[in-house]
Write a structure and sequence with these properties.
The structure holds two protein chains of two kinds.
Chain A (H helix, E strand, L loop, with lengths): L3 E4 L2 E4 L5 E7 L7 E6 L6 E5 L3 E2 L7 E6 L2 E6 L9 E6 L5 E2 L3 E5 L1
Parallel strand pairs in A: 2-11
Antiparallel strand pairs in A: 1-3, 3-8, 4-5, 4-9, 5-6, 7-8, 9-10, 9-11
Chain B lengths: L2 E5 L3 E2 L5 E8 L7 E8 L3 E9 L4 E3 L7 E6 L4 E6 L8 E9 L4 E5 L3 E5 L2
Parallel strand pairs in B: 2-11
Antiparallel strand pairs in B: 1-3, 3-8, 4-5, 4-9, 5-6, 7-8, 9-10, 9-11
Classes of the chains: A mainly beta, B mainly beta.
Amino acid sequence: DTQMTQSPSSLSASVGDRVTITCQASQDISNFLSWYQQKPGKAPKVLIYDASKLETGVPSRFSGSGSGTDFTLTINNLQPEDFATYYCQQYTDLFSFGPGTKVDIK
Amino acid sequence: QVQLQESGPGLVKPSETLSLTCTVSGASMRSYYWSWIRQSTGKGLEWIGYIYDTGSTRYNPSLKSRVTLSVDTSKNQFSLKLNSVTAADTAVYYCARYNWSDGRFDYWGQGTLVTVSS
């Protein structure tokens, strides 16, 4: 099975910052990767799919890149509503999620 | 607007069977995969399995021996049964729609906490 890792596990940032989260797969997953945002008490919400495609309605400050085993989620101009936990998820070998990256206020 | 809503007991005794139902509204269940995903403090987000509208299923190998999914498209519902539960099965359980054409879980229920305890 495909294991997903993320780094960092948490980070502190300020409004207006650029934030980068990385995700690594234990084997080549091509571009079969999605990113989700989760706020406390809520279900995850998809932001990015196929590694770099922006979900309809998601602000363009979110972007994804990568292929193979290494992927990145970038948030430009961090907004107050972006403080949340972010998960990557692969879908080439059934499904598995990364452990999450919590983004909180500095 | 597609909406999913989980329902079922919030407390299950050890060794018994956890049963949840997800009701789908605002969309047909045809031509989609319908999934269960759980989230616990210890294991993060864990995919449990999915079922297609035809009844075809796939399960997480780590849970396969204890899981059964079923679907009733006439009621726009699908269900999860997880038997022989232990405290390790305590989690928030989500139902979600898997959009196979784009590879993402695009609609989720709000989640329901199931606690395994005597």
